[in-house]
Design brief:
Structural class of chain A: alpha/beta
Organism (chains A, B): Rhizobium puerariae
CATH topology of the largest domain in chain A: FAD/NAD(P)-binding domain
CATH class of the largest domain in chain A: Alpha Beta
Helix content of chain A: 25-40%
Strand order of the largest sheet of chain A: 5-2-1-9-21-20
Largest sheet of chain A: 6 strands, mixed
Radius of gyration of chain A: 23 Å
Enzyme class (chains A, B): oxidoreductase
Largest interface: A-B, 75 and 74 residues
Number of domains of chain A: 2
Oligomer: homodimer
Strand content of chain A: 15-25%
Number of strands of chain A: 25
Pfam family, one (chains A, B): NDH2_C
CATH architecture of the largest domain in chain A: 3-Layer(bba) Sandwich
Catalytic activity (chains A, B): a quinone + NADH + H(+) = a quinol + NAD(+)
Distance between the termini of chain A: 66 Å
Number of helices of chain A: 10
Protein name (chains A, B): NADH:ubiquinone reductase (non-electrogenic)
Chain lengths: ~425, ~425
Amino acid sequence: MPQASMPQAGTPRVVIVGAGFAGLAAARALGNAAIDVTVIDRRNHNLFQPLLYQVATAALSPADISEPIRRTLGRYRNIEVMLAEVTGVDAAARTVRLNGGSSLPYDRLVIATGSEYNYFGHDDWRTWAPGLKTIHEARLIRQRLLLAFEKAELSRDPDEKKALLTSVIIGGGPTGVEMAGAIAELGRFMITRDFRKLEHDQMRVVLVEAGPKILAAFPDNLVQYALRELEKTGVEVLTNLPVVSVTKDEVVAGSTRIRTGCVIWGAGVKASPAGKWLGIEGKAGGRIPVEPDLSITGFPDIFAIGDTALGLAEDGKPLPALAQVAKQQGEYLGKALKEKLLDGKAAGPFRFHDRGNTAVIGRNAAIFDFGRWTLKGHVAWLLWAIVHVYLLVNFEKRLLVSIQWIWRYLTRQRGARLIDENAAAFVPSSTQRTET
Amino acid sequence: MPQASMPQAGTPRVVIVGAGFAGLAAARALGNAAIDVTVIDRRNHNLFQPLLYQVATAALSPADISEPIRRTLGRYRNIEVMLAEVTGVDAAARTVRLNGGSSLPYDRLVIATGSEYNYFGHDDWRTWAPGLKTIHEARLIRQRLLLAFEKAELSRDPDEKKALLTSVIIGGGPTGVEMAGAIAELGRFMITRDFRKLEHDQMRVVLVEAGPKILAAFPDNLVQYALRELEKTGVEVLTNLPVVSVTKDEVVAGSTRIRTGCVIWGAGVKASPAGKWLGIEGKAGGRIPVEPDLSITGFPDIFAIGDTALGLAEDGKPLPALAQVAKQQGEYLGKALKEKLLDGKAAGPFRFHDRGNTAVIGRNAAIFDFGRWTLKGHVAWLLWAIVHVYLLVNFEKRLLVSIQWIWRYLTRQRGARLIDENAAAFVPSSTQRTET
C-alpha cells in the first residue's frame, strides 16, 4: 500500500478519512509518533470554513483561508497524505476501499468526513440555492451575486431590475446571518460607488427562517440585538416561513413569493453519508452515534469525529456540529490512539469544553455567547476579528487577512470582486434591454 | 441606449471595446471630460497579465492582480461600464452590435480587444495546452500542474511517474521562460517538502522553442545568461524544435517525443478577430494596420490600439505587442480624442517611447534590455520586483503582493496551491496503482 512501501513490522497503522478540523487535529496529535498515519481527502486543501462567507462576498481570496493538506502535515514524517475518495469500508478485513478499486489496510480507522447541506428531500433546489461548504460553491455564489448586479445595470425593466437586486438567504443560523449582513454591505457599497443605474431602494436582502427565531442557539438578548443590527444594515428577516419551492428566479416561503437574482442555502446540515460504509443508519441528521471514547457503537476499531459523529455532552444532550467540537474530538482521539497503540493505556471519556459561540452581523457588530455571560457590539466584533485571525493557519495568512480587513474597514472596498469566466456569456440576451 | 438615459444634446460619445492596458488608459485619459464614454468588456475585471504566470504557479491569488473594471473607472462620472460582448460594427450607421441583438451608437469607436494565443491552425491543441491569457486559464494550469504531482505520488509505475512529473512549455518568449523557471522552482520545493514518494531526478521541465533561440527579442548576452540560469533551475531548453503534435499526455517536437503531465502554450499570439467586424483582413498575426493617429486605415472615426493594432515605429518597423505600447497608445488616443472632440485640435502622430524590455527567470535572476544598456542578475531581479509592484493597481494590492513575495523569498512557500474542485474525481483510476 502506498503509505508505507517499506512497512516496519508491528508499526500500527491509523487511517484518517477527511482533513477538516477534526481529521487534521487527530493527525497532528499523532504527528511524529511511531505510528503510520494516512490521511485521505477528496480535496488537496483544508479550508477555514468560518470565513468562507467572506470569499462568497468578495472580501477575501480562497487562498487566504485554505492550505494544501500536504503542507499542513508536511513536517510530520510519519504522515502520508492521499488525494483520493473513499468508497467503502470492510470492517472484517480492516481495509478501506478507494475510488479506482484499490484498498488500504488499517489497524484503527478514523472517520472525519464532516457534513453537507440538507435540502430536506429537495436536492433539485441545490442547483439554484448553493450552500457554503467548498471554495467552488463560494466562487459560484460570488459569481451569481456580482452577475445579478451587472444584469440589473443593463436591464430597463424596473420589476426585473428589482428582482435581480434581491438576494434570498435561506436559513437563519450564523452562516445565514453572516451572509445576509455581508451581502447587504457589499450591495450598498457597489450601488453607491460603481453602478450608475441602480438605486439603494431597489436592493433587497431577505433572510428566511422556517422556525420562530433566527440564531436559535443564542440567548434572546443577543438575538434581539442581531435583529436590530440586521435591520440597520438593510436585511429583512422573515421567520416562521418554511421554504416551499426554489427555482432559478423565485423562492416561495410559506405563502410569500420572492423574485430573486441570487439564492443561498444555509438551512441546516446533515452528516456525510459515511455511516453507509458500515451499514449504519445515522441518527439526528444522519450523524453516527459514538461511545464516550468516540468509537462507533459496535465497531471498537473505528472512530467517528466532527460533524459526522453524534457525540453526547456530559448532560446527555447531543454535541452541536461546531468547529470547536470537531477540533477537540480530533485532539482527544489522536492522543488517545497514541497512548493506546504505543503504551496500551486506555484514555478516559471525551469531554467537550465549551469555548463560547459567536456570529458576526456586519461592520462593528458581532455577538458572543460564553454561557455565563454574553458580549455584543463593537467590542464583540473586534474580539471576533482577533480570534478569527489568530485561528488562521500561519503567520502569512494572518498578515494577509489582517491587511485586507483593515483596508476594507477604512475604504469599504472589497478586493476580490471577480467573475471568473467569460462573464458576458452568462448574461442571457433577454435581460439585455439595451435600446436597439 | 444604456450609457446615457438622459443624453445631453451635442455631448460626443466614445465607445471603447476592451478594458485591457490600452482600453483602460484611453478611458482614464477621457475621465471627467465633457464626453460620454462607454467601456464594453466581456469580463468584469481587468488583469495585470505580466504576473498571471504567478497565479498559474500558485504564488499569487487571482484577486491580487485584478480589479473590477467598474471600480477602476468608478471615479469618472462620465464613464459607463457594460459587461457585454461586441458581435459587430456598423461603420455607416456608427453603431456597435452587442450579444443579445441590441446596439449602441458612437461618434468615435476605439477597438482595444487585445490578442489571443495562436495555435497556428491546430486549435485542437488548445484543450491540452492552454495559454496564459485569463484567470480561468491560469487556474486550469495550476490545477493540472498540482494534480500531476498528486497523481505521480500515487503511481507505482516509474515511467508513468516520470511522465506525470514532466512539464512541457511551448514557446521560448518571456512568458514561456517565466513559466518554466517558476514551475521548476515550485516542483523542486514541493518534492523536497511535501511529497514522500517523489525524487528530484524524476522531475523535468522542458522549454521547447521552434526558432533557433529563446527570448528572441533580447540581445545575445542576456539570452546566454538566461540559458545558464534556466539550466541551474533545472529547465531543459530545446531550440529549433517546432511542435508537431500535442495530445493529453505527449508532446512531439521535431522528432522528439516527450511524455508529460502538464503542457502550457506560449508560442506566439495573434490579434483578436475584431478586424472581421470591419471586413478587414489583418496583417502580421491578424493585426489591424493603423495610421499615425491610430485610426484604422479607411475608417477615420474608428481607432485600434494595443495588441490588436499594427502600429509602426518611427523607423517604419511594426511596434511589438507589449503592455507598454498598449498603455502609451491608450493614453495618446484618449488625450487626442479629447482635444479633437472638445477643442477641434488635431494631435500630432503617436510616438512610442521604449521603456525597456524585461523577463524574469527565477529567484534572484532577471534581465532588462534598455536598448543602450542591459542589466541582469540579482539587481535586475530586484528592479523587476519593484517595477511590477509599482505597476499594480492600488496600494492594497501592492502591499499584499509585496508581503507574499517577501514571505515566499524567505520560506520558498507558495500560498495558493489550490486544486479547486473535487480533485479526487480528476484522478483516473488507472493511475491509482495502490496495492489491492
